[in-house]
């Protein structure tokens, strides 16, 4: 009976040995070293895709403005260029377009979006050239994504 009690006591007092703990921690360290760069790379790729999508959305709002102006025979409909080129919420809400709307109202949420790093996009008016009409360019200063439109 006493042997059985000692055996049961011994079974409940078992734990991890130092070797088992070292091996477990080593395996976790190796997994972390392998997975972390992949995770960071995936995050950067996601921000690039998000930036491309946002630049495209911003451009599409201004292109729609231009296309709408064709039916009304308006010319020079591009939003005024901000002094610092930054498409901030303040600029979008204070810049009045030819049809009385603000730049912010070109978008469904009635506000412009920022890049994935929460910085404003840059907006440049492009002058008329010998072969192309006036247009605009939107740049993301953090990712290098850029989109140009000239009719």
Task: Kindly describe this structure.
A 3-stranded antiparallel β-sheet has the order 1-2-3, with helices on one face. The chain is rod-shaped. The chain starts with a helix and ends with a strand. The relative contact order is 0.13. The model has no long low-confidence stretch (mean pLDDT about 90). The chain contains 3 helices and 3 strands. It has one domain. Strand 1 and strand 2 form a beta hairpin. It is mostly helical and about 150 residues long.
A few lines on this structure:
The protein has helices at residues 2-12, 18-71, 89-94, and strands at 122-126, 135-139, 146-149.
Structural category is: mainly alpha
Biggest beta sheet attributes: 3 strands, antiparallel
Residue share in helix = 40-55%
Q: Order of SSEs, N→C?
A: HHHEEE
**Spans of 5+ residues with little confidence (pLDDT < 50)?**
none
Can you count the helices? 3
Q: How many discrete domains?
A: 1
Question: What keyword list fits this structure?
Answer:
mainly alpha, 3-stranded antiparallel β-sheet, 9% strand
List the helices and strands and how they pair.
Layout: H1 2-12, H2 18-71, H3 89-94, E1 122-126, E2 135-139, E3 146-149
Antiparallel strand pairs: 1-2, 2-3
């Amino acid at each position: 009976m006493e042997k059985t009690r000692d055996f049961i006591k011994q079974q409940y007092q078992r734990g991890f040995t130092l070797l088992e703990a070292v091996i477990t921690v080593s395996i976790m360290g190796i997994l972390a070293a392998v997975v972390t760069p992949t995770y960071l790379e995936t995050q950067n790729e996601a921000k690039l895709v998000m930036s491309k999508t946002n630049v495209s959305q911003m451009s599409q709002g201004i292109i729609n403005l231009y296309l709408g102006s064709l039916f009304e025979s308006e010319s020079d409909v591009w939003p005024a260029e901000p002094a610092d080129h930054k498409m901030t919420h303040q600029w979008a809400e204070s810049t009045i377009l030819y049809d009385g709307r603000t730049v912010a109202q070109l978008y469904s949420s009635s506000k412009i979006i920022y890049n994935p790093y929460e910085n404003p996009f840059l907006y440049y008016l492009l002058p008329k050239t010998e072969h192309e009409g006036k247009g605009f360019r939107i740049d993301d200063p953090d990712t290098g994504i850029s989109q140009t439109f000239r009719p």
